[in-house]
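Fold these two proteins, one after the other.
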Amino acid sequence: MVKWVAAVVAIGLLALGIARQWEAIVADFARLDAVTVTVGLVTTLAALVTNMLSWRAMMAATGARVRLAPAASIFFVGQLGKYIPGGVWSIAAQAELGRSHGLARTGSAVASLASMLVSMVTAALVGIVALLVSATDGLAHYWWLAVVVVLGLVALTPPVLSRLIALAFRVLRRPSASVRLTWSGTAMSMTWSVAMWVLYGVQATVVLRAFGAADPSLFAVATGAYAVAWLVGFLVVIAPAGLGPREGVLLLLLAGIVSPSGGAALALAVVSRVFMTLGDLLLAALGSALAVRHRRAARRRVTAGDLPDRHW
């Protein structure tokens, strides 16, 4: 019952966010051609899939190897929780969904938290590299990205992260959990996460070009700005899916390559959010369909006298 209520709340808040920006959405999409919309949506879907693969690699780092179908179901459906203010609902949803598929709730929560940390660190890393390559003054305002990268990389080393997890359980007065992360799984999670930011950079570049941006460093700036904007939006936990703070960061970091009026940057914020929302809904629908198929197959096996395969 709680899962359904959370899903309804998430979708309701998502719909409210779209309604508030409806006029801007219609106006901006009217200026896009079919190729731009297609490339933008495809790259967004690909980025969301690589994010799922990053989470799946982190699950493997904890010792829980999840097949692709259940990973897609758990992750994509759980991601709807990010539209609820607070920043932890997607973690709770993924832990609960993982439990229904035979995964330990603690392990799922740890992997989700670690995966979010990976996204934060790689966002800061990609942001630094892109802003340095583009030779803008973005780092003058966002020097703290270097601090995030250094501290994040240290925190992500398996020995340190394992200790941090144990400390968190003690602080929360939860039963101690023996979670040991592998170096290979953590490294693979970071690799998929970097690929995700590159794909989002392609999406941002295509959209900005459609609105007149033509700077030689467009891809580097767009990739860095998108990653940093996501990071800031994520840290502002009271904003559902980062709504508001991300747009402000995009305006600041893209000011050097788009028109002074900021029209292209605002258009990117609106269009990209629509691509992201559509992608989340489409992949959540896919994840739900996979879950339904699995439950039906499990019931058939039980009826036939076989034990259900909890891990698909």
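Now the second one:
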Amino acid sequence: MKKYIAFCLILISFVVKSQEKDKFLPNGNEKFADKNYVDAEADYRLSQAKFKKKSISSYNLGTTIYKQNQAAEAKYQFEKAIKDAKTKSEKHQAYHNIGNCMMKEKDYSNAVEAYKNALRNDPSDEESRYNYALAKKMLKDNPPPKDKNKDKNKDKNKDKDNKNKDKKDDKKDPNKDKKDDKKDKGDKKDKDKKDGNDKKDKQDKGEGEKPQPKPSGASKQRIDNLLDAVNNEEKKVQEKVNAQKVQANPKKPEKDW
């Protein structure tokens, strides 16, 4: 019996709570209309806290915060509204206002994406279409700056790849230096051989020889006389030798008896 009574009390409290009206939401709407954004924000927060998973509370809270020039916080509330949204219309309005927050922060790239999502949920909305075109134009006129860290990392990775490539080449041919030395020695040997052949050709052609010493200052006539005297002495010596040969070898008789 006690368990049954406890169960009934829980059920009654649940029904009462479900039938409880959200008085904070309309109060916030009235204050928002009067441009009393601070008090409106307080009511919307109470509505969001007491009635969780209610997309309209987060959406209205985001709009009120946006009016107070707090785009980052407003964006967070619109994202929560999208998460709790039950219809495409609710998602469309939240995405549209996220695009407005991005435009305020000059984040045109994300603004384009937000307005695109808004149009996916309501392609007929002309205001979203206009803002989408405007965001695309602003993105074209104001391209995002390049990420220096990304470029730096890219250059670093490129240098690393080049180093790895050099190491790979060295590993691939460990006798590269020896081959180069051998090639250099072979080239030097061929060069020396070529130089030797060139030297030999020059010698054959009479090129590259040292200059011969010139004759002394003796006259040509004196030289001729000396040569004649030498020739005459050789002639006398030769005649004397021939005479001795004749005496040593008498002639043989013509016939043998």
